[in-house]
Amino acid sequence: MSKSMISWNAMSVSVVLLVAAAAAHSKAADVFSKPPAWQSPRPEEVQAQAIRWLAEKQVDAATRNKAAALWADLAKQPTETQVLLRLAATFALADQRSAKLVELCAKPKNQFVLPSQAWLSDPQTPAFLGANLRLLYGRWLVHCEMFDEAHEQLSGLNPGDVVAPATLLFYRSVACYSLLHKEAGLKAIAELLDGAEQSPRRYVTMARLMQEDLKILEDDSLDHVARRMNDVRRRLDLGRAGQKVRSVEDGIIESLDKMIKKVEEQQVASSSTGGVQDTIRSRSPAPDSVPIGGKGPGEVTKRNVGSGDDWGHLPPKDREEALQRIGRDFPSHYRDVIEQYFRRLAAEGTE
After folding, report:
1. pTM (two decimals)
2. Which of 30, 73, 123, 248 has the maximum number of C-beta atoms within 10 A of its C-beta?
3. Residue 263 domain boundaries
């Protein structure tokens, strides 16, 4: 190849790259020129609201001085979580219930049964206080893996209701993702990404990973079943063993039954096809243009691999056979998860 040809090819590649870069830049400019769906309030605006709330509570001078010291200690460019924590601490200065909740959220979970926080949603509770403390509480509940309770607190809140909208949307997304609420999770993630340019980078990165994962998650798939099993383990670790957990377990058993039945039907169909082909191969070649028929009862031996009520008590041989059927069509780590689940069910049945 001549030098002139090499130079021309290099120039062509450069032009293509420049055009692609320009197109990408233009697309990015369009994205960032679009007004965000929500906006984080400025820290000074939140501080002013907090001071007005204190004035309405008619607190003494000492309390006002404590509040002023709280906000004076805030960083020059604080994160929205830092602003939320300062606001909650301000509420705690003048409201006893807020003080107890802030104290609870500052410590690791040390009890299974949490005190009722119904007052947060009470119409008599000021909206500014209730919404932001629900966010504080929901965030803490997610960290404690109490996703049902977190979802209850964070549902119904809008980004404009709180001083930390990105935090609200991120933790709502995590709760929905962990509970396998696919539609609600994708909605919360999309809303968070609509304001990606003003969200913490870690929120955006995690949100995109959760989004891609939820998009491909299919109901009653083995991946879906494995996640539901993990959810049952989490609930039991939290001391939850009521009707809700049992209904989740029943759903898992039903899904496993469907999958094993499907695998068994595929094996039966494969065996039937192989049998006919062996019969054809064992005979003399058939003349051209002569259809080959076959007669047979069309029956297969039915195997009992357990029902929804006794999966945990299957005989070892039958349980191993069921696991091998699943293992042939799915990755091996799912076999371990299902085997552990069977052991848990068997152990619970002996208690």
Report:
1. 0.66
2. 248
3. 219-268+307-351
